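Dear colleague,

Thank you for sharing your sequence with our group. We've completed the structure prediction you requested, and as agreed, I am returning the results in plain text so they can be pasted directly into your records. Please verify that the sequence below matches your submission; if there's any discrepancy, let me know and we will rerun it promptly.
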Amino acid sequence: MAKCDLCGNKLDMIFLNKIMGTYVKVNRKTRTVCSNCQSKFSIDELKEKIK
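Please find the predicted structure tokens below.
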């Protein structure tokens, strides 16, 4: 199970083991973000918080 890098909640899996959320690339590393955090913050805010 994957977890959100911002809030730490578990990410649900859907068909073919895809996550309910998105991947954000920060400093050549891929981070996972849940759909709740994604709706709260813009892309720039997400990248700043994940640093």
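Summary note from our side: The radius of gyration is 11 Å.

Kind regards,
the structure core
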